Structure formats: structure tokens, C-alpha cells
Amino acid sequence: MTSDVWLPLPPEEIEGLPEGPRYLFWDGGEDGEQPFPGDPARCAVYVVPYMKPWPTRVGPLARLTNVRVIQTLTAGVDDIMARLPDIPPGVQLCNARGVHETSTAELALTLTLAALRGVPGFVRAQQREHWESAFHPSLADRNVLIVGYGSIGEAVEDRLVPFEVARVARVARSQRTTARGPVHPITDLPALLPDADVVILCTPLTEETRGLVDAGFLARMKDGALLVNVARGPVVDTEALLAEVGTGRIGAALDVTDPEPLPPGHPLWRAPGVLISPHVGGPSSAFLPRAGRLLADQLTRFVNHRPLRNVILTTGAAGPGSNGR
Fold this sequence. Notes:
Layout: E1 4-7, E2 22-25, E3 43-47, H1 54-58, E4 69-71, H2 78-81, E5 92-94, H3 101-116, H4 119-127, E6 143-147, H5 151-160, E7 167-172, E8 176-178, E9 181-185, H6 189-192, E10 198-201, H7 215-220, E11 226-229, H8 238-245, E12 251-254, E13 274-276, H9 287-303, E14 311-314
Parallel strand pairs: 1-2, 1-3, 3-4, 4-5, 6-7, 6-10, 7-9, 10-11, 11-12, 12-13
Antiparallel strand pairs: 5-14, 8-9
Helix pairs in contact: 3-5
């Protein structure tokens, strides 16, 4: 029976790890060339390194012949989904629901407020030592549309409440009702977009959401509206966004882009009305304590043969598990 657990965080820094498995530290190293910490065939649980290049994250998969659980430290699992053929059947793939909601929701509000209140212009004026006062829109009294009402979308709405927004509309893959109100199916987007002053994207990247924000989506947004993307870059058609912001009709605040990292000289860098942060929705001081709690809980469940949390799918099974989206 395999008993090794590969962790991208030093085991001694994670409180509450259960006894039993052999915990091995592996994060790929600075250059992705760090040797494996043990025999990949003995690895029962692979915790995917966080904020490492894609080749590093998926590199061990084909050699983990007896792995039983793959745990990401990201909310999205599109990188692992792209390599499902390398994974044996019967493996549970779990995401990091509960880890990134706080940090990502904070950044969604930061980008929204900074873009609306003109903070990028203030920074440029400060660099020129120029006192440049101006009138800017407030978040108060605005209609906000959250596209992707899973745990991160809910956390965003939690943080919108004190800002006196006029209305929050919610969209997810499936229609449902929450304590705060209805969640619309994605098919309702054409009717909801024209009323939204701020559109916040929190949806996972799937075949259904890839390119969701296309020319038609953007054309339905009202004049002066703001698009905020804390989801994944490919959810937005970059060329369509460039064409729309180029007219000055709408603005955008992007934590993720397509391509990513955004290369020097790319037109998004200098597009009018666009604020860019370098995919920092998750990495903050809020990450480590929440990641540690998730790993301790998941591994305790694993050792005690209890159901795991956040199961997206089991490889070789007929259908995916629930990801809370």
C-alpha cells in the first residue's frame, strides 16, 4: 500500500497533520528541476505546487501510478483537467474551495474601487508630482452583476454589502435560490448585462466559460460599465475586449489575462481605461493559514477513510463531482 504524501509546503509548517503517512516536501524548486522527494509510485496523495509553472505542476502526473488523491491549492483545476489521460482511474481530484475566497474577494473589491475612483490616474499624477483632482463614480448606488456565483462569488457579495450598492444580480451554471436572492442561469446573461454598472467575473474556466466574454457579451454592457476579471484570462476574448475598451465606452480591471503572463508590448498594457494586476487574487497573507487548515483536514479524512471535501471528479467515473459552482 502506498503511504507517501507529497506536500508543496514544509510539513513542519502545517499544524494538525495526522500520523501515518510519510510526508515529503516537493514544490519543484525555483527552476522546476528539483528532484522528486521519493519514488512517485509510492505517492498516495499529491498536493500540486502553488504558483509554479504549468510543466512543474503537471510534471509528476504520469509517474504517480498509485496516486489516490490529487489536491490542488487553487480554486481552478483546469491545468490538471488538461492532463487527465496521465492520471490512473479512481483518483479523486479536489480543489481548494475555502482557501482563496477571502483574498480573491478582497482583490475583486480593490480592483473595482480603484478603477471606479480613478486610483491609477492618481498614481500617475503622483509620479509627475501633479495635484490632479477629479470627479469619479462611486460604488454606492451601482448595480453589480456577479458571473460565477460559487464560494468566491458569495464572498464578493459579502464584501459588497457595506458599500450600499443598489442591487446585486447573480449568475451561475444552474439556477437556484439563496438567502440573498435568486441565482440566474447563464442563459439569462443577455437580459442582465444592460443593467449592470459593474460586472465581476468569478467563474471557473471550463469549455462552457472559455470565451464567454466575447464581442456580443461586451456589446450588451452599458456605456460606462466596468468589467472586473478575477476568474481566468481565457474567460474573456482579449481581442474583443481591446476593441471595446479602445472606444472608451467601457473600462476593465483585470487580475488575469490571456495570454498570461502578459508579455511586454502587448496592447492590453496601454489600453485606455484598463487596470491590470499580475494574477495576485490568491497569494496574500490569507493563503497559508487557510491552505494549512485545508490540508490538515483533507489528510485527516484520507487517513481515517472519510469522504474528502471539494471533490471535483473521480477519474474514470461516469460524471464529475460537485465543485460548488
